[in-house]
Amino acid sequence: MGKAGRALREVMQQYKINQNKLATTMGVGRSKIHYWFNETQDPVAESVADIVVALEKINRQAARDFIRLYLGDIAFEEGDRPNGEPTD
Predict the structure, then answer these.
(1) Residue 44 maps to which CATH number?
(2) Are 39 and 45 in contact (CB under 8 A)?
(3) With bands split at pLDDT 50, 70 and 90, how would you rate the model's confidence at 84?
């Protein structure tokens, strides 16, 4: 499916965030997280924003990594990249 599900799965695995924790923080059912995590269903744009807000509450770096994985370098200003590299 989509890039958001892959990015979410990678971040959740890397930062050991379980589906129940994210669902509780977002105020949604765990099944919704399950669908995204397993790429059965893509989150809508509003849900992507909610994912970022929830990840910020759980782990700020996880939220930044999700944004980077989902949007790529367009999400960060020069000098603000997670790896510190400037843009070309």
Answers:
(1) 1.10.260
(2) no
(3) low
Token pair for 86: 């400037």
Which residues, at least 6 apart from 61, have a Cβ–Cβ distance to it below 8 Å?
15
Contact present, 36 and 69 (Cβ < 8 Å): no
Cα–Cα separations (whole angstroms), residue 45 to 51, 71, 81, 88 = 10, 12, 23, 28
pTM: 0.81
pLDDT bracket for residue 30 (50, 70, 90) = very high
Domain that holds residue 55: 3-74
How many of the other CB atoms lie within 10 Å of CB of 17?
A: 19
How many domains is the chain partitioned into structurally? 1
User: Per the domain annotation, does 35 fall within a domain?
Assistant: yes
